[in-house]
Amino acid sequence: xxxxxxxxxxxxxxxxxxxxxxxxxxxxxxxxxxxxxxxxxxxxxxxxxxxxxxxxxxxxxxxxxxxxxxxxxxxxxxxxxxxxxxxxxxxxxxxxxxxxxxxxxxxxxxxxxxxxxxxxxxxxxxxxxxxxxxxxxxxxxxxxxxxxxxxxxxxxxxxxxxxxxxxxxxxxxxxxxxxxxxxxxxxxxxxxxxxxxxxxxxxxxxxxxxxxxxxxxx
Length: 218
Known about the structure:
alpha+beta; five-stranded antiparallel β-sheet; globular
């Protein structure tokens, strides 16, 4: 059976668009962050490797608790990036500290460019994700437990304890995983998604749309 050349071409193009971050072409590429970036790349330009130092591969960014009172859902995410950990540039990974207040919620969201594995350091969490057949996978985590969220799938983390805070550390398989909250992406876009679309999609009325937008800050 012969493969259509055009079909093979489009298959290769598609595969090129869904693969993870490209492999680095050198041992490391310490991000050059001192000068404004005028050319936008997948990553950042490198400093001269001769100037690499242990401090480029070290960060304390995840050592301090985040402010969970900064939003009504009671959570805070602190990420590593090329400014607080320049040695991570081009390595295809990110780390995150997630602080969740009592009964706090990291709401349903996706990372379009990364899978995520999280380990619960403190507290008790209910976590879960939804696959593309709308099947829900949930698990209650205790301290020391880990859970994997597949790339691009909607997932959440909920603190089951009404008083004690929870802490997780996550690793994500992209230098720039992205994060899109399902609710905000639907109701707080600029410009707004037309009301008629939201009313029909969610089987709600115009007042519901307005109330949800207001509650979400849209």
